[in-house]
Design brief:
The complex is a heterodimer. Chain A is mainly alpha-helical. Chain A has 28 helices and 2 strands. In chain A, 61% of the residues lie in helices and 2% in strands. Chain B is α+β, with helices and mostly antiparallel strands. Helices cover 39% and strands 26% of the residues of chain B. In chain B, strands 5, 6, 7, 8, 9 and 10 form a 6-stranded antiparallel sheet that branches. The chains are: A mainly alpha, B alpha+beta.
C-alpha cells in the first residue's frame, strides 16, 4: 500500500533498517522487478511510482449513489439572459434600493430569479432583502435552500417552522449578538406572538438596560392588547429608557390603561374656552402642572427634560404625543384647523403643536380620524418655517419629515414640491431632506416636476444650493418611475450657469453621470422584465 | 455570433483591463457603431477618439489607442457592449478604416500559411543540428543524474523535514535543471515545492510525484529501449520543444468541429499560460491546447468557453495524444447550442483513463464529457452521479452554482479528472454551454 511507503519515506530509508518487512505484496511488484532498482531509495521511489500508476489506472467509481430529489418545475416565468447580467450588476453594486425595486418588480411580473444567482441571493443577510427575495426564489430556490443549513431562513416565513429552524433560532436566542437576537424575536413574533412574549419575559430580568429596551421594541411586530399586561410590568423597570419604550408601545393600544391615564392627564392640561363678547373666539389654553408625581414617571415621563428645556413644556409635549389627535376632536368638539388656530397664541402653543404633530405621526396610520390632522398641521409648520431661518428651520423640517411619512403619496408629493419650489427661490437647503421621505417610486407627475426643477437649479441656483441639490440625484435615480426615464436621460448642460466654480461644475457633472447610469441600468431592467 | 460577458471576461489580459472595459461599455462612450457578418466596430471617446474593431470570425481585435495591453480596454468595452446589448451596433457596411484592417488581416493569415510552407523547404545543416542534439542529450543526462542523486537523498533522510525548507531549497534544484536544458522537469520540481503542508496527505502526494520523476529519470536512462512515440513524450516532459514547423508538417491532423469546453489561465514568471480543453464534435476526441503569452499580450488563438469552430487539430508527437494545436480554422466561430458527445458511464471513462496510463504513465489531467449526470451534495463532499447510479467525487470546493443551475436534474458536464476528483469545467443546460 502507498500508505506504508509514505510512512517509510517520511522517516527516511536511512532510519528504517530494511524496508521489506513493512511492505505488503502488490500486483505491481512484477513490473518493479523489471525496472531492477539498485538501492533501497530507488526501490522505494519506483515502487511508489508503480503503485501510483496502478491506483490511478485501477480507480473505481462508488456504486449505488443515492440520487437527490429533482427540483420541481418552475411555475413562474424564466428571466432572459440579459436580465441575469443586469441583476448581477445590481447585486455587485451593493445598492439595496435598486435590488429592492428589481425584486419587487420581478415578483409583480411573476419572474423567478436566474438559477445561477441563487447561491448568492440565498446568502444575503439583510432581512428586508430576504423578505423581497422569498417571492422570487422560485421552486429552484426553495429546493436549493434545503441543502444548506444557512439558507433555511427561506422557510421561516412559510408555514410553520421546521424543527431544525427552531433549534437554530433557539441557539441564536441563547448565544447570539443583540441584533441577531432581536431578529429571532421578531421572527417568533410573526408566527407566535404570545410564545415570543413569554420567552422574552423569562429572560428579561437578566438583560442589560439597553438590551431590555431593544428587545421590548421588537414586540412592535404583532403588537396587541394581549401584550398589555407584560408591557405594564415593564413600566416598573429601573431604567427610564425602558419605561419610555414600554409607554410608547402601550400608548399605541387605544384601550390600554396607560392610554386612559394619558388622556386624563392631557384633558387636565388642555382646556378650551370662548373669549370675546361679540365673536366668541375659540381659545385653547395649555396649563401643564408645576410638578409631577411618581405615577407620571412610571409612565415614562422624566422629572428632568433632556437638553435643558423647560420642564413644563416638555411634560405637555410628552403627554400630548401619547394621545391620538382624534381625541381632541371629540373632547373639544372642534375641527383640527380651528384647534390649531386656537392654540397658536398660547404660551405653550409651540409645545402643544409639537405634541400633536408627533401624535399625528404615531397614530395617523391606524386611526383615520387622526389622519385628518396631517394636512392642517403641515400647513401650520410650513407657515412657521417660512418665518424662521437656520437651526430653528432645521428643527421644523424634522417635524415635517414625520408628517410627510404619514401623508397619502400624492398629497405628500404635492406638499413637498411646493415647499421645494419656494425654497429654491429663497435658497434654504434644509427642505431637500424631505424628498427622502416620499414614498417610492415617485409619481410620473412629481418626477416630471422634479426634473424640471433640477434643470432650473442647475441654471439658476447658487453653488451651495446646487451642490446640496445634486445630492438628491442619488435618491431620484432610484425613485423616478419608468415613464420618466426618457426625460431623465436627456443631456443636461451644467455649464449654462455663467458663474459656476469649477468644483461645482465637476460635482454636478459627476452626479449627473451617476444618476443617468443608474437610470440606464433600471431602464434595461424594465425592458427585460416586461419582454 | 452572440457572445456573453463571461466570454469577454476570458479575453481580458488582466482584471484591471476587464474592469476598465466594463466601464466603457456604456453607449454614451461610443459613436459610429456598426456590425456585419465579419466584423464589429465603433469609435470610443478616450483621451482621443479611438477606432476600435473586432474580427468576429475569431474575436481578434485592434484599436488605435496607444495601450500596450491587448486586447485594450476599448476593444473589451466594445465587446462588453455587444454582449449586453447585441442590437446597439446597427448592421452595415464597414467604413474604410475597418475594411482596410480586415483586408490586411486576411492577407497576413494567408502569408502565414505560405511562410509555413516555405520554411519547410529550407535546407537544413544536418551535421550542425546533430551536434547540437548530442550536446543537449549529454547535458540532460548529467542533469538528470544529479537530480536522481538529490531525490534519493530526500527519501534517505526522510520527507518529514521538507515542511521547514525555504522556497530556495526547490528553486536551487529547479535552476540547475534549467541549466541542464530540462525546463519541463524544472517546472515539475517547482510545483513540488508547493506541496509540503498544503494538505493533510501531502507526504503521499509528494512521494507519488517523486516516484514518477524517478520513473522519468529511469526511462531517460533507457530511452533507446522505449517505443518511439513514448520516447517523444519523455523528451517533451523533460523539456524538448516541438517546433511549430514540425507540427505544421504533420499530416495526421484531425478535422472536426472543435468546441472549447474549459479554459484556465495562470501566470508563471512573466508569462501567462492558458490551458484550453477542446472537444471534437464528430470524433469525440480531446485536445489540450496550451498557449503562452507575455503579460499584457494576447494569446495567438482566442478560445472562449462555449464556442465552437470547424478546424484541424494536430497532436504533439507521442503516445498520449493529448496536447494539440489548432493549426487551421476552417470557418467562423459559433456558440455551442447543441449537445456535445460524451459518455454516460463513469466506468467507460475510467477505462479510458486506464488505457491512457498504460500508454503514458505520467499523464496528469484527463478530460471527460459526462452525459446525463447529476450533482449530489453530501454533508462534507460533492459527488457526481451517472445515470447508472455510480459516483465520482467532485473537487473539494463548493458547487452550489452548479447545483442551482441543474436543479438535481441530469445534465451534460465537462470535467477534468485530477486523479482523485473531477474538477467541473462547464455544463450544457437548456441549449447553452456555460462555465461553472
Amino acid at each position: 500500500m502507498i500508505d506504508d511507503l509514505t510512512r517509510i519515506a517520511l522517516v527516511g530509508t536511512s532510519r528504517t533498517s530494511g524496508i521489506a518487512p513493512l511492505i505488503h505484496e502488490h500486483p505491481g511488484d512484477a513490473l518493479l522487478a523489471g525496472l531492477a532498482p539498485s538501492d533501497p531509495e530507488s526501490t522505494l521511489l519506483l515502487r511508489a511510482a508503480v503503485q501510483t500508476v496502478f491506483a490511478a489506472a485501477g480507480r473505481m467509481s462508488e456504486p449505488d449513489v443515492a440520487a437527490v430529489e429533482v427540483s420541481p418545475v418552475e411555475t413562474a416565468r424564466t428571466p432572459s439572459i440579459r436580465l441575469v447580467g443586469i441583476l448581477q450588476n445590481a447585486m455587485a453594486s451593493d445598492s439595496k434600493d435598486l435590488l429592492d425595486e428589481m425584486l419587487r418588480q420581478m415578483a409583480a411580473e411573476t419572474l423567478h430569479l436566474p438559477h445561477e444567482l441563487l447561491p448568492e441571493a440565498l446568502s444575503v443577510a439583510d432581512t428586508t432583502l430576504r423578505d423581497r427575495l422569498i417571492p422570487v426564489l422560485g421552486e429552484r430556490g426553495r429546493w436549493l435552500s434545503r441543502f444548506n443549513p444557512q439558507w433555511l431562513w427561506v422557510h421561516e416565513g412559510i408555514g410553520t417552522l421546521s424543527d431544525s429552524d427552531q433549534e437554530r433560532n433557539q441557539q441564536i436566542w441563547d448565544e447570539g449578538t443583540i441584533p441577531e437576537r432581536c431578529r429571532v424575536l421578531a421572527a417568533w413574533r410573526r408566527s407566535n406572538p404570545a410564545g415570543a412574549r413569554d420567552t422574552l419575559s423569562e429572560t428579561i430580568a437578566q438583560e442589560s438596560a439597553d438590551h431590555r429596551g431593544r428587545l421590548i421594541s421588537e414586540l412592535t411586530t404583532g403588537l396587541s392588547s394581549d401584550d398589555e399586561e407584560f408591557l405594564e410590568k415593564c413600566l416598573d423597570d429601573r431604567s427610564s429608557g425602558v419605561k419610555q419604550i414600554a409607554a410608547e408601545m402601550l400608548s399605541r393600544l387605544p384601550d390600554s390603561a396607560l392610554s386612559r391615564r394619558m388622556q386624563d392627564r392631557a384633558s387636565s392640561i388642555l382646556t378650551a374656552g370662548k373669549t370675546g363678547i361679540v365673536f366668541k373666539k375659540l381659545t385653547v389654553t395649555c396649563s401643564p402642572p408645576e410638578s409631577i408625581d411618581k405615577t407620571w414617571e412610571r409612565d415614562g415621563i422624566s422629572q428632568k427634560p433632556p437638553g435643558g428645556r423647560g420642564k413644563r413644556a416638555y411634560w405637555a409635549e410628552t403627554v400630548l404625543q401619547a394621545v391620538p389627535p382624534s381625541y381632541w376632536g371629540k373632547h373639544l368638539g372642534t375641527a383640527p384647523g380651528a384647534l390649531i388656530e386656537a392654540v397658536r397664541e398660547d404660551n405653550f402653543g409651540q409645545s402643544v403643536l409639537l405634541g400633536w404633530s408627533r401624535a399625528c405621526a404615531r397614530f395617523a396610520a391606524s386611526d383615520p380620524e387622526s389622519a385628518l390632522w396631517v394636512k392642517p398641521l403641515w400647513t401650520y409648520w410650513e407657515d412657521v418655517a417660512s418665518r424662521v431661518q437656520g437651526t430653528a428651520h432645521g428643527t421644523i423640517i424634522e417635524e415635517m419629515k414625520s408628517l410627510v411619512a404619514v401623508m397619502p403619496a400624492s398629497e405628500a408629493e404635492q406638499a413637498v414640491f411646493e415647499l421645494l419650489r419656494k425654497n429654491h427661490e429663497s435658497g434654504g437647503p434644509e427642505a431637500i431632506a424631505l424628498l427622502d421621505r416620499l414614498p417610492r417610486p415617485w409619481s410620473a407627475h412629481f418626477s416630471e416636476r422634479y426634473l424640471k426643477l433640477t434643470g432650473s437649479v442647475i441654471q439658476k441656483s447658487s453653488d451651495n444650493f446646487a451642490y446640496q441639490w445634486m445630492n438628491t440625484l442619488h435618491m431620484a435615480a432610484r425613485a423616478i418611475p419608468p415613464e420618466n426615464f426618457a426625460a431623465a436621460l436627456v443631456p443636461w448642460d451644467v455649464a449654462l450657469h455663467q458663474t459656476r466654480t469649477s468644483w461645482a461644475l465637476t460635482t454636478a457633472e459627476r452626479e449627473i453621470a451617476r444618476f443617468q447610469e443608474t437610470i440606464r441600468l433600471r431602464q434595461s431592467f424594465y425592458e427585460e422584465v416586461s419582454a | 455570433m452572440p457572445i456573453t460577458s463571461e466570454q469577454v471576461l476570458q479575453l481580458a489580459p488582466d482584471s484591471n483591463s476587464a474592469k476598465a472595459g466594463e466601464k466603457l461599455m456604456a453607449l454614451k462612450n461610443w459613436s459610429d457603431l456598426g456590425i456585419n457578418a465579419e466584423a464589429l466596430w465603433g469609435k470610443c471617446q478616450g483621451s482621443a477618439l479611438y477606432q476600435v474593431k473586432v474580427d468576429l470570425t475569431n474575436l481578434g481585435s485592434s484599436c488605435s489607442c496607444p495601450s500596450r495591453k491587448f486586447p485594450c480596454k476599448h476593444a473589451l468595452g466594445l465587446l462588453f457592449l455587444y454582449a449586453e446589448s447585441p442590437v446597439a451596433a446597427p448592421l452595415g457596411e464597414p467604413p474604410e478604416w475597418v475594411a482596410d484592417w480586415l483586408l490586411k488581416r486576411r492577407d497576413r493569415e494567408e502569408k502565414k500559411s505560405d511562410k509555413n510552407a516555405e520554411q519547410a523547404d529550407k535546407p537544413v545543416d544536418e551535421k550542425a543540428q546533430l551536434k547540437r542534439v548530442e550536446q543537449r542529450e549529454t547535458r540532460v543526462s548529467a542533469g538528470l543524474e544529479r537530480l536522481d542523486l538529490w531525490i534519493r537523498d530526500l527519501v534517505r533522510n526522510g520527507l518529514a523535514g521538507l515542511e521547514s525548507q525555504p522556497p530556495s531549497f526547490w528553486d536551487e534544484q529547479a535552476r540547475r535543471l534549467v541549466d541542464a536544458q530540462s525546463p519541463g522537469l524544472s517546472s515539475r520540481l517547482l510545483a513540488l515545492g508547493e506541496l509540503p503542508g498544503s494538505s493533510p496527505d501531502w507526504p503521499m502526494q509528494m512521494l507519488s510525484e517523486l516516484g514518477r520523476i524517478k520513473l522519468l529519470i529511469h526511462a531517460w536512462q533507457r530511452i533507446e529501449q522505449i517505443d518511439t512515440p513514448l520516447q517523444s513524450d519523455i523528451r517533451q516532459m523533460i523539456g524538448w520543444i516541438i517546433s511549430q514547423e514540425e507540427l505544421a508538417e504533420r499530416t495526421d491532423g484531425v478535422q472536426d468541429i472543435w468546441c472549447v469546453v474549459g479554459q484556465t489561465t495562470s501566470e508563471e514568471k512573466q508569462l501567462r499560460v492558458q490551458r484550453a480543453w477542446l472537444l471534437g464534435r464528430e470524433t469525440g476526441r480531446w485536445a489540450l491546447v496550451v498557449q503562452f503569452a507575455t503579460l499584457g499580450q494576447p494569446f495567438a488563438e482566442v478560445l472562449p468557453v462555449g464556442t465552437e469552430r470547424p478546424g484541424t487539430v494536430v497532436y504533439y508527437p507521442g503516445a498520449s495524444e493529448q496536447r494539440g494545436k489548432l493549426i487551421r480554422q476552417e470557418g467562423g466561430i459559433a456558440e455551442v447550442t447543441r449537445r456535445l458527445p460524451g459518455t454516460d458511464r463513469f466506468d467507460d471513462f475510467l477505462g479510458e483513463v486506464s488505457s491512457q496510463f498504460a500508454r503514458q504513465p505520467w499523464v496528469r489531467g484527463l478530460c471527460g464529457l459526462f452525459s446525463d449526470v447529476t450533482i449530489v451534495p453530501r454533508e462534507k463532499e460533492w459527488i457526481l452521479r451517472d445515470s447508472a447510479g455510480n459516483g465520482l467525487p467532485l473537487s473539494p470546493k463548493n458547487h452550489w452554482k452548479l447545483l442551482a443551475l441543474t436543479g438535481g436534474a441530469p445534465c451534460d458536464l465537462a470535467a477534468e479528472w485530477e486523479g482523485r476528483s473531477l474538477h467541473p469545467l462547464g455544463v450544457y443546460i437548456q441549449g447553452r454551454y456555460r462555465t461553472t
